[in-house]
Amino acid sequence: MRTTPGSTRSWLRDHFLISDSILAVVLTTASLWWIALAASGQEAGWLRSAAPRPADALNLILAAACTLPVALRRSRPFVLLVATCVPQAALDTLHYDPGLSRLGGLVLLYSVAACRGLALSLAALVVSFASYVAGVLAGVITPSWPDHVVVTAVLLLCWVCGRALRLRRAYLAELVQRADRLERAREADTRAARAEERSRIARELHDVVAHHVSVMTVQAAAARKMLDIKPDVARDALSAIEEMGRTAMTEMRSIVGVLRTDGPAERGPQPGMHDLPALVEQMREAGLRTQLWIEGERRGLPPGVDLAAYRLVQEALTNSLRHAGPAARAWVTVRHEPNELSIHVEDDGRGAAEEPARIGGKGLEGKGLGGKGHGLVGIRERVALYGGVLRIGPRAGGGFEVRAQFPLSHSALK
């Protein structure tokens, strides 16, 4: 049963020495009162000495010595149980009326079982039985066989109740620890999910910014060169820069919107392979002569693969626009196969020659992967996430190429 914080029961549980002292005083008072009532020389009662002596000061002191140690029952229960056997044996040997002194031993037995380990609690049970048997064998206690059964049952009941309380406390403590572990695991999972989401947003932002800013830079350079010679061409370039800036702002607002906490973000659909013609047209307007070939039967792609493939083409064309040179051409080949999506982006420009490298779904294979920028790192992560294979490096006839294969089988996407 739970107790309300601040209640009397909760306060007594926190200050157990006070509650145990009250129990010891009440038990001692009842025992002495019992002895005083029996001081008129009545016949021996249950578990009394065969011929009780008249009560005197020593009788009261020994009886109190059996019950007052209950006040310290939680600090040294086993030691106090053994210690109370001495005044109890003195009461039996001197044929004094024990009163309720044996209840002190029962309380201490229960305390050992509830507060100590199994071995010590069994030892306490043996001590209690030994104290009772010693009194019987010495002839100072003369109970009948039903009394033996009752005494055995009472001792076992006190021991079992104490052990049950200890096991219940251990079970509740384990539940609390398990709840704490689950809470910590949940917080760790939440932090990992947040970090993964931030990484994804960072990749999306880089892809959007790098692509659009690169196109805007090329257009601005063209507008600057044509401003005095062909104002109309410069005006068209500035219009393209304006449109590209608006598009970039729209995509950035859509991505960054998920970080807002003041309300649901307005998010449009993510781009995919169906947007490749528009992407190729943008690159043509920016000055990169780009051609697109789509082979095989088009079919629906998993959303993650669809976005990853689009971003790969976008990043590859952006790098060609920035590094291939003004007279370069680029080709994009998309091949739809039954169990695989293949993408090949190449240009014939003067891109830096770097050793080809491959990346598999389970990690990097080889060194010297082309480029050290965040864009190529993002491509690697996207392809590896879906178990694909990526190759980045110089093209055989000059220029640069990017090849990727995305598996489309269910087992590869799991």
Automatic annotation (TrEMBL):
**Enzyme Commission code(s) on record:** 2.7.13.3
Q: Describe the reaction catalysed, as an equation.
A: ATP + protein L-histidine = ADP + protein N-phospho-L-histidine
Has keyword Transmembrane?
yes
Q: Which domain of life is it from?
A: Bacteria
Annotated Histidine kinase domain residues = 311-410
Q: Which residues cross the membrane?
A: 16-35, 118-142, 148-165
Q: Which UniProt keywords apply?
A: ATP-binding, Kinase, Membrane, Nucleotide-binding, Phosphoprotein, Transferase, Transmembrane, Transmembrane helix, Two-component regulatory system
A single Gene Ontology CC annotation of this entry is: membrane
One of its Pfam families is DUF7134
Q: Which residues form a coiled coil?
A: none
Single GO molecular-function term?
phosphorelay sensor kinase activity
State the PROSITE patterns in the record.
HIS_KIN
The record, for Gene3D superfamilies, names:
1.20.5.1930, Histidine kinase-like ATPase, C-terminal domain
Cross-referenced InterPro entries: DUF7134, HATPase_C_sf, HATPase_dom, His_kinase_dom, Sensor_HK_TwoCompSys, Sig_transdc_His_kin_sub3_dim/P
The keyword Chaperone appears for this protein = no
Q: What is the protein name given in its UniProt record?
A: histidine kinase
In the record, what lineage is assigned to the organism producing the protein? Bacteria, Bacillati, Actinomycetota, Actinomycetes, Streptosporangiales
